[in-house]
Amino acid sequence: MKNIQIEEVPLLKIAVSLMAGIVVGQSVTVGAYWLLTTLVVLLALALLLWRQAHWQSVAIALCFVALGWLLMKRQKDSLRVTWPEDEVRYEAVVISEPQEKPKTIAVDILLPESGRKLKAYLYKDQWSRNLQIGDGLRIQSRIDPNDEWHRGTFDYRRYLETHGFTGHTFIASWKWQKAEISLKGLSHLERTRFFFLRLRHRFLARLSAVRAENDAYSVIAAMTLGDKSALTQDLKDVYAVTGASHVLALSGLHLGIIYSLLSLLSVGRKRFSIHFSLLTIIVLWAYVFLVGMPVSVVRSALMLSLYALLSLGHRDKMSVNTLAFAAIVLLLMNPLSLFDVGFQLSFMSVLFIVVWVPLLLDVFPADYLQAHRLVHWFCAMSAVSIAAQMGCAPLIAYYFGRFSTWFLLTNFIVVPAATLILWFAPIALLIPSLAYLLLYIVARLNTVLTLLAALPFASIDGLCPTALQIVMVYVILIALYLLATRLQKGR
């Protein structure tokens, strides 16, 4: 196997520099004028050093550090809002599925005039229970800034800001009413998102109309349309303990299944044609909008779009450079994405899969794997599961204090099940009478995972690693990779 050299992944160096600037910008505040001046000076210096490749690379890296710093300041300034201390009247649009709390109904709302997002909590009654995505509201309430609240390593304010929320409000039953709200002030992107969110709501309504247990419906809704509002805490715990939570949170696995389905539907060499590639990209991004554009799905769509285009030229399609490019695009769009747990887990799992899987598969003779398809599938599935766990386990231990010991067995169950669920879901939407097949698969999956969660030592809980310890774990994993590749060369 060919060892990955740092010179072969220039986009990785750019992505790391951009991340470094964002991290510095999160902690250190400097005027935008000075940052912009520094960026221009470094850019000019990089151009002047064209004859000295090493120093030019350093100058370019510093350019992206300054750019990340500048973008972070701009993002923080855009989220810094001073709300009036008294109640105000305003118009809003519901942009999420309502979630029932003990005393309130929680929804995300968007203010069309300013484009700002709020967390809204309406007193629970028959009217708030019937809210739907796209409903316009006229509200009178006090808007409060995001709360400073921590639980372990979880920073609630940072979570809200990462997802674009600038405040929250509690609304009494007599202080809001439905109304027709114009969306003309929103951008084309936001209006497109609204169209797909309404479409998702209709799909969810069709799924909920099928006679199904709540657990079965909630898993289907989460796994296919990204709506986790119906998941119970007990079901979440079962999936978390067994290491199957990644199938509930939409990610590259789900888009990869959709991509493979499109490939199967293609005929012969048409899968490498420009028409197939464009159709694939359109379908993937339509699905991204349909599920609400979570960071992990956007990352996967970017990578698969590049994969489809690079397939036309038979280039290196799924590489560290491709992953780094996706990271750069997402961070340029929203620098705070770097602090999103989903972003970190998604990129670390894919990075370790891209880097470690070829090394793990190289343990077995290539001729033997090609001659035995079933063995090859088993080894590939094991390698991907182990590599992804290596990338995610330290972060999961840091954020959630847990390590799932049965992750390998779990993946051999949930990945085929997720494939069947994603393939049957469109059929169930089109032909509701066949939905019983989908419900049967989900019910059996929940039963098996519940049994796995009850096994002895199914998970190790109560882990409390520090950030420095997590960094050291990744340093050790990098050292092991370098040692393994060195030994591989010496064979």
Characterise the protein shown here.
There is one protein chain. This protein is of the alpha+beta class and 491 residues long. 62% of the residues lie in helices and 11% in strands. It has 18 helices and 12 strands. The strands form 3 sheets. Strands 1, 2, 3, 4, 5, 6, 9 and 10 form an 8-stranded mixed beta sheet that branches. A two-stranded antiparallel ribbon has the order 7-8. Helix 15 runs antiparallel to helix 18. The model has no long low-confidence stretch (mean pLDDT 86).
Percentage of residues assigned to helices: 55-70%
Number of helical elements:
18
By secondary-structure content and strand pairing, the structural class works out as alpha+beta
Spans of at least 5 consecutive residues with low confidence: none
> What is the arithmetic mean of pLDDT?
86
Shape: globular
Largest sheet: 8 strands, mixed
The helix-strand sequence is HHHEEEEHEEEEHEEHHHHHHHHHHEHHEH
Amino- and carboxy-terminal Cα gap: 11 Å
Cα-atom radius of gyration: 24 Å
What share of residues are in beta strands?
Answer: 5-15%
Number of strands: 12
